[in-house]
Amino acid sequence: MLKLGAYRDCQSGAAVVEAVFVFPLLILLGFGGVDSSLLMLQNHKMENGLTAAGNYLSRSENPQSLETKARRLATTGQLTSGGTAKITGWGANDVVISYQNTANPDNGGSRDYRGGDTIKVARLTSQLSYDGIGFLKAVTGGSVTVKASYEERLIGDAG
Questions:
Q1: Predicted pLDDT of residue 132
Q2: What pLDDT, on a 0 to 100 scale, did the predictor assign at position 71?
Q3: Which residues contact 111 (CB under 8 A, 6 or more apart)?
Q4: What does the alpha-carbon distance between residue 152 and residue 52 come to, in Å, rounded to a whole number?
Q5: Would you say 85 and 75 are in contact if contact means Cβ atoms under 8 Å apart?
Q6: Whole-number Å distance between alpha carbons of 3 and 136
Q7: Which own/partner contact pairs does 84-88 have at CB distance under 8 Å and 24+ positions apart?
Q8: In contact, 136 and 38? CB cutoff 8 Å
Q9: Across-strand partners of 151?
Q10: Which segments of the chain have a pLDDT < 70?
Q11: Phi and psi (nearest 5°) for 57?
Q12: What is the pLDDT of residue 57?
């Protein structure tokens, strides 16, 4: 019985036992943080690309004629073909451009928006499957999709 009491007060090996329980949790938190950061970076790159393309279209007199260049600008940062994609797998075909007209009637000398009878807005949207390091896919049990959108009022549109 005396020897059993000696084991109860023994502290050697306690740190190893604690580490066995804590280390996997720290590994999971680390991988989760890295994968989440990469996800936010991909979303940021998509939003910045769509913003650049929207700004480019907004100042054009005929934005529909420049859609191909705007898509390339969003995905590669260049107006000409042959640029390197900002995000692996993200191409010009992944960017959707649509236009919305909003009525802006004259209400006795005042309007809801500054401008003419119709306010034109370009809407750019895109989505892309996120691969990352695979931690978020494993946790969610499926695929993770990054979606981004941007709207810009067309100020140069002549028509």
A1: 86
A2: 97
A3: 104, 105
A4: 10
A5: yes
A6: 49
A7: 86/45, 86/49, 87/42, 87/45, 87/46, 87/128
A8: no
A9: 123
A10: 1-11, 157-159
A11: -70, -35
A12: 95
